[in-house]
Write a structure and sequence with these properties.
By secondary structure, this protein is of the alpha+beta class. It is built from four helices and six strands; from the N terminus they run αααββαββββ. The chain has two domains: 3-44, no CATH class; 63-204, Hotdog Thioesterase (Thiol Ester Dehydrase, Chain A, Roll).
């Protein structure tokens, strides 16, 4: 993975957080806006214009073929776990051997960019992360599938700035349907739980 691009995304995340939390006079905001506009123009000169995917910039790598790696490696452009996508929070995801299927564990904190209610994570962000962590479970178990249904139960508010733990695992496989579950924990309390049915797709195998 290109180190310079990883660093660029890290700095862009810092910028996004700073802008989200900005409390400054209009003159300062205008000056910063002009500086950012200049940077954007430089960056846009190097934008790839073709079909892209979360597995690779140019949609030329199948994540399934990298199933023995971590989610950040086979989904580098993911909006949830991708180090090359600036809207993805800096989560550390790893593969855990357990029973008949491998599982996923992801840890990290969500900052002000992801706030919904006061000092709490916006529910849609939690849904996004659940979907991609469950999708990562499929990859590490050599299952090419797409989300069919996703059910989430929000059991308690999830705080901003606290260490979170996400877990995901396959419950069972029935033909083309793969049943996956996931949980979100903070300080020993389950904040949300998800169940999903994913459907095997030939194009992803």
């Amino acid at each position: 993975m290109q180190e310079e691009l990883v660093k660029l995304n890290e700095e862009t995340r810092r910028l996004m957080k700073a802008v989200r939390l900005m409390d400054a006079p209009g003159k300062i905001i205008e000056e910063l806006s002009q500086k950012i506009a200049s940077l954007v123009e430089d960056a846009e000169k190097h934008s790839y214009k073709g079909t892209t995917a979360q597995g690779s910039l140019k949609n030329d790598q199948n994540p399934i073929k990298r199933k023995n790696e971590n989610p950040s490696d086979f989904f580098p452009y993911s909006p949830a776990v991708g180090p090359l996508n600036p809207i993805a929070p800096p989560l550390k995801a790893e593969v855990v051997a357990a029973g008949n299927y491998k599982e996923i564990r992801a840890t990290g904190k969500l900052d002000g960019v992801y706030v919904g209610p006061p000092d709490l994570v916006q529910g849609g962000v939690i849904a996004l992360l659940f979907d991609d962590i469950m999708g990562s479970v499929l990859v590490v178990n050599n299952c090419g599938a797409m989300t069919g249904t996703l059910e989430i139960k929000y059991q308690a508010p999830t705080p901003i700035g606290k260490e979170l733990l996400w877990t995901g695992k396959i419950e069972k496989v029935e033909g083309r349907k793969i049943f996956v579950s996931a949980e979100l924990w903070e300080d020993g309390t389950c904040k949300a739980a998800a169940k999903g049915i994913f459907v095997k797709v030939a194009m992803l195998s």
